[in-house]
Amino acid sequence: MLHAILSGDVPRSKVLAAALALIFFALLLAPFVFPTVNALNVAGKICIFILLAASYDLLLGYTGIVSFAHTMFFGIGAYGVAIVMGRVAPDWGGVLLGGGIAIALSVALAALIGLFSLRVRAIFFAMITLAVASAFAILASQLSTLTGGEDGLNYRVPEMLRPAFRLFDGEILGIVINGRVMAYYLTFAVSLLLFLLLLRVVNSPFGRVLQAIRENEFRAEAIGYRTVHYRTLANCLAAAVATVAGMLLALVLRYTNPDTTLSFTIMMDILLMVVIGGMGTLYGSVLGATLFLLAQLYLKDVMGAASAATSGVPLLPSLLHPDRWLLWFGLLFIASVYFFPTGIVGRLRSLAQRHRLL
Amino acid sequence: MTATVKAATADALPQVRTDRLPLLILPVVMLLALPAIFDVPAWLTLTLAGLAMGMMIFLMASGLTLVFGLMDVLNFGHGAFISVGAFVGASVMLPLAAWMQADSFALNMAVLLPGILAAMLVSGALGYGFERIVIAPVYGQHLKQILITMGGLIVAEQAIHVVWGPDQIPLPRPTSLRGAFIIGDVAIEKYRLLAVAVGLLVFLAMMLVLNRTKLGLLIRAGVENREMVESLGYRIKRLFVGVFVAGSALAGLGGVMWALYQETVTASMGMQVMVLVFIVIIIGGLGSVGGCFIGALLVGLTANYVGFLAPKLALGSNILLMVLILLWRPQGLYPVARR
Amino acid sequence: MSEPILSLRGLNTHIAQYHILHGVEFDVPRGQLTMLLGRNGAGKTTTLRSIMGLWRASAGEILFEGRNIAGLSTPEIARLGIAYVPESMAIFADLTVKENLVLAARNGPLDGARLDWLFGLFPAMKRFWTLPAGVLSGGQKQMLAVSRAIVEPRKLLLVDEPSKGLAPSIIANMITAFRELKQGDTTILLVEQNFNFARQLGDSVAVMDDGRIVHRGSMAALASDAGLQQKLLGLSLDAHQ
Fold first, then answer.
1. ipTM of the complex
2. Which structural domain, as residue segments, surrounds residue A134?
3. Does A64 touch chain B (CB under 8 A)?
4. What are the beta bridge partners of residue A166?
């Protein structure tokens, strides 16, 4: 049963299985176990970024192409919902309308970029996505009548997702099932479903072809696969999933601005999550996104304390300043590309394998 | 770029087709913009602004494209050299602000030149370290190269914050480079003129080295076939490191010039300019210095013309320009011949 | 007999995970022209590339003038006096004929007498002197590739299929060139498919099959033994002509 749900792609490491189970149950029960607004926001963000990172891994890990436009699709999803919620109607029809337009736009853009630049070489694709994505981000902040510019948009979401909404009059297991909890479970369910779908895709014949192309493009071409088509298809699928992740973010946050969706910083965050978690395995995205977001939250406090504690020493306080946490993550990123190209999941799996062999 | 034919006895010599078509785009774009802008002084000002911007982008892009042509290495962290150059330049110039603000060309230059020199030295040295530590281990692996150099960019940007603090630094231009020469209705900004001059000078020097010296021959031959260059007995790795360092130093020079143009220095400026740099080297044909030069000027002109006609579309226009050129020539203006 | 200028001892080469050369062993006598023959895919080009350091030998020795050069870098090997003409010719299309030769002359400016000798062998080089090499015909490119290897005196020349796709008159020039080089004290190792060409030039011969040397001997002996040719190369001289 579980085997079928995971499309036969089992963790293959006890530690990994335990970590995944822990994350799954923590997210499943988050509203009950961590009943604060803040904690619920973090849990929601983790769900969304797991989905976002997993869809990115479809490109980076499974197809072997680097895109810098993933946040563009994420942003299209968020802005699609935000604009329709704010201007047309804050109801489910609006979510479908905005989401539908956003997904169509994302897929069309992804197909265009793919057909255009994947023909030449992978390095072209990286450069062109970078250029297009940053142009898009600037465009979004300049078309302020539509997007609210740098400030972004605040809007109402469907009634069921508003904080004032109550599903039941009383409490269930000690908490009130309000709109926040509803929004969280919507996020959780959609993320889980799409994650399992991605798991199915990468373990399907289509996924195997992608990996064959990644391993040896020349050979795959010789066998007769139209590599450009496969890669473009992967790009479209990844874009569509990222768009849905953006829609979820827009519904949970109830505001959308360039910093939370389109910024280059988010793009780098996704890259770090996938690489540190483990490229070419979707479970890597789960671990990577969870660890990264928790670290982002709590590392800052730790660094702040450390910075204050070393205030007499030259340079050290500024190295440990909470805003410099990206410096350390950047170094960790470089180190993991060099020394652990398969990331945490790859390490865990090879450890487990060695254990079995002994 | 193609060589000129000098042979007088042309009895059965094969025709050398010189590909001049891309050169025509520049005047065509300029002439098309004239009726659209419909105001000769404004057009002249915008054209100069576009050329100046293009020249500065060329400074930053030329090293990157040559490094790619030579070793198939694309350094996504190139932007770090631009930012670092700007910060180092500012650090040298700002303590001597009094000389910068003095109404004396000589005093101004006495600050500016050491600033530029320091920027180039530090960026070049950083480039050397970057090549040795970050890039050398991942030769021939594009995916890792992109990831690692991106990681290098993050770290470099953060390191700038550690050294120079989190805020942007204002960097006013020296007095003698402010203002404009007024000729009739036309205002010619002094700084833009300087940028054009520096860019042209660097371009001509590069062309001279590439076409007239043995070192240049080696670089051009290496871009075509590095294995054969090695088989002839030359250590191409050394050549490559040299080009990488020179390209980094030029990025530092471009950084200082760009910072003085914007009159501020920020840690993210390198990354911001990199978007234009990538567009330029794609347009030019990865690996081609001549293509990079034309591409940079095209991007600069387009940005300024469109910025005047429809300000909100300025950056989008460069993407459009890139798309149009790639539709015409999928490998860029001057695709580099490869095995 | 003097010591061979080049001798391969148990040379093994892998390309990625594929094992291409399995203990290749033969000598190239000094001052002679040695032919390396064999079918397509026998490992001839891999052997030349291994000598040149363009593939790393995974085991075995490559002795050049008594010194093991396996493990040296390609530029170091070239600087010992070994020149290489690859099958692809690898001329620099963007550079002029002159510039191609200027690069090949490591030790300084081009030598006038040497150039005149080259122009005598390959008049086309003189005519196209200032043209980009990319516009040359296939045969002219081949001449340029060979000229580049001999623009300065070298001790050992590795040439991969110089006759491929050339007109007979040009092949004749090529043969003259190699003969004159040999008289000028250059040792040559030539990979060839064209047996007729090989027979006219070769002193000694090594035949490869499936990554191994299957025959060593004198060219004269092989040329006069149709049965051996049939067995080693799967061809007879008559059928080839």
1. 0.91
2. 2-357
3. yes
4. A178
